[in-house]
Amino acid sequence: MGILLPMMQTYGASFLRGFIGFAVIFFTFTYLRNRAGFHRISDELVQLPVRWSFLAGHFAALGVFAGLSSLLYGGSLPVPLSDPAAAGWFVTGWAAIALGALAFLPASFWTRMVASAGNLWALALGAAIVATYLGNASRSLWDSAAYLTFHLSKAFLSPFVSDVVANPERMRLGTPKFRVAIDHACSGLEGVGLILAFGVIWLWVFRKESRFPHALALLPAGVVLIFLLNSLRIAVLILIGDAGARQIALGGFHSQAGWIAFNVVALGFVVAARRVPWLTITAAPVPATRAPANPTAVYLLPFLMILAAGMISHAASGGFEWLHPIRLFAAGAIFWIFRREYARLEWKFGWAGPLIGLLVFVLWIALDPFPGAFRNSPIPSALAATGAATQVIWILLRTLTAVFAVPIAEELAFRGYLLRLLQSRDFKSVSPRAFTWFALAASSLAFGLMHGNFWLAGTLTGLLYGLAVIRTGRLGEAIAAHATTNALLVAYILAFDNWHLW
Questions:
Q1: 132-165: b or e for each residue (b if 16 or more CB lie within 10 Å)?
Q2: Which of 49, 189, 400, 425 is deepest in the core (most CB within 10 A)?
Q3: HEC sequence for 207-239
Q4: Residues 438, 63: Cα–Cα separation, whole Å
């Protein structure tokens, strides 16, 4: 084995974490510190077209990077080729990032942004290096931290469980029906390190707005809160498992609850630092009038909220997705918030929309990638085991999601936003009737890839929905087509027991 491959395997994960930490810190705080300048530069660049040569180079580099990743981590690469492949992996990875950045924003934007950030790049780089180093060096504290986490989790658990099973020697905690081992990864130190890095950089970047030494109290408060929330997470995980939902406890909840806790503490840190007079010199003013809605948010937020709700639903699911209907309420909240903006859109449709929806339904059934494997796939056993009322409510909510929330959210995102964005950065200036073959094909392919194994049917569907908008100039035409397709699919699923389509 050569030299580069062992180095990549040893330090690659740490380097990647450090790079992501640097990028997140640098871009987040550059924007927060110089928001007006950021918007001014962005406004100047809004009319610039996407540079397709750089974008093509980005996808080419990404393809080579993916191929080399498969060879390097698949273990099938001959030893003499290991170092050249590792070097190529590193170069193509950086090339993909650089070419992707230059495809949408010219080099002048990046240089001006770095210049406007001042010495923030050094601060972000130093924080990333220190955080990566401390993450490895803190191993000596793991035993003590895990021991403290064990006893805090036991304290949180005791009021709800009369017969707590606790074994400090083996670090096992739980109930007679469900127990977990609290190892080093559960110690809470990762969350402590993240919130410390976030808090220190915040106080440094916004030091002129913070009231010292009062604002320093946010650091220990954040550390204590994130540590307590980690212990509470373990206690809740045990309670979920004890209630019989072992798959939820050990699956989605275990992996997602830590990040949710960090986001909650970080958001609380920011709100307190900006709003509490004891911590800040000038509290952030509350706008007297309603600011104009960001057009990108109007078109993308319903879709993003459905994705976020899906992540939460999967995190809380153990075999059957009981919380699937929260997508409906997540999208509905955004529809209500931007109801004035949506009222201005063209919602009318004619005969073409439902007819295209019928055609897509036939296409979707014909291109089913599992026509034999899931033939007559019945209702999931978990749902079938419940009462009729529960089944009706769950199916009704999922049907409303499929027929109303999803078509509106996805058409706003793909035909209302992406199809026009690929023609001009100022997508609002692009007529719904305007199009290029590249924009239509690329937006349709993105729509298809979002549908996983049904990517081919999804791509053709995107083309037909896109043509519906281009032909009529009305987004409502595509929404009507999409809603028709989904309604027919729901009827087909329920009538012929093809639940794998859902």
A1: beebeebeeebeebbeebbebbbebbeeebeebb
A2: 189
A3: CCCECCCHHHHHHHHHHHHHHHHHHHHHHHHHH
A4: 20
The length of the chain, given as a count of residues: 502
Residues 6+ positions from 153 with CB-CB distance below 8 Å? 173, 182, 231, 232, 234, 235, 238
Structure confidence at residue 213 (pLDDT):
85
Question: Rounded to whole angstroms, how far apart are CA atoms 455 and 473?
Answer: 26
Q: How far is the C-alpha of 14 from the C-alpha of 136, rounded, in Å?
A: 9
Give residue 311's pLDDT. Answer: 72
Query: What's the number of CA atoms in the CB half-sphere (13 Å) around residue 206?
Result: 28
Point out the residues of the chain with pLDDT beneath 50.
none
Q: Closest Cα to residue 379, out of 390, 368, 369, 371?
A: 390
Q: What is the DSSP letter of 319?
A: S
The whole-number pLDDT of residue 125 equals 78
DSSP 380: -
The pLDDT, as a whole number, for residue 486 is 95
* Residue 166, strand partner residues: 173
Q: Which ranges of 75-106 would DSSP assign to H, the alpha helix?
A: 82-104
Residue 174 φ/ψ, nearest 5 degrees: 165, -145
Quick count: other Cβ atoms within 10 Å of Cβ 336?
Answer: 9
Across-strand partners of 210?
A: 280
CB 379 within 8 A of CB 497: yes
Phi and psi of 208, rounded to 5°? -75, -20
Q: Which pLDDT does position 30 carry in this prediction? A: 73
* pLDDT attached to residue 277: 86
CA 196 to chain centre: 23
Domain ranges of the chain: 4-117, 132-275, 295-501
Beta bridge partners of 181: 172
